[in-house]
Design brief:
142 residues; mainly beta; two-stranded antiparallel ribbon; 13-stranded parallel beta sheet
Length: 142
C-alpha cells in the first residue's frame, strides 16, 4: 500500500511500504519497452524554452526550443521544426527538422529533413538527407 508522506517546503511525496506476498509493485505497473520510446520522446522541450549547458540523456528527447552547449546520450534526438541547437552532439541517432550549428557524431542513423539547416561536420554510420535540406560541412560515413 502507498503511504503519503509530507515534508516541510516540498510537495507531497509518495513512498512504497515494503510488502511481502504475491502482489508486488512490479506486477501492478505496465512494462515500458525501449523500442516504444524511439517513436515517442520521453522528454519534450517546447518552443518557448531556452537551455544552456551540457545535456546528457539515455531516453529519446525532442527539442522544439533553443539549446546551446553540448548534447550527449545513448538515445535519439529529434530537433523539431522550431528547434535551434548550437552545440556539438554525440548521440545514437537523430532526426533534424530545424536548425543545427555544431559538429555531429552519430553512432547509428542520422536523418536530415527537407526543412533542416545544418552547419557543421558530421560523422554517422548512415545518413539520409531529404531534398530541400541545407547542409554546410564535411560528411563522413563510417
Amino acid at each position: 500500500m502507498f503511504k503519503r508522506a509530507m515534508k516541510p517546503g516540498l510537495e507531497s511525496v509518495f513512498t512504497h511500504k515494503e510488502r511481502s506476498g504475491e502482489d508486488s509493485l512490479s506486477t501492478e505497473l505496465p512494462m515500458i519497452y525501449p523500442e516504444s520510446l524511439k517513436e515517442n520522446p520521453e522528454t519534450i522541450i517546447s518552443a518557448s524554452v531556452l537551455i544552456e549547458g551540457t545535456l546528457t540523456f539515455e531516453r529519446s528527447i525532442c527539442i522544439n526550443g533553443s539549446f546551446t552547449g553540448e548534447l550527449i546520450g545513448g538515445a535519439r534526438l529529434h530537433i523539431g521544426p522550431t528547434g535551434y541547437i548550437k552545440a556539438d552532439i554525440n548521440l545514437e541517432s537523430a532526426l533534424i527538422e530545424g536548425r543545427l550549428e555544431g559538429n555531429v557524431h552519430i553512432s547509428g542513423h542520422l536523418e536530415i529533413a527537407a526543412t533542416a539547416t545544418v552547419k557543421g561536420d558530421i560523422i554517422a554510420k548512415t545518413i539520409t538527407v531529404k531534398s530541400g535540406a541545407i547542409l554546410n560541412g564535411l560528411v563522413l560515413i563510417s
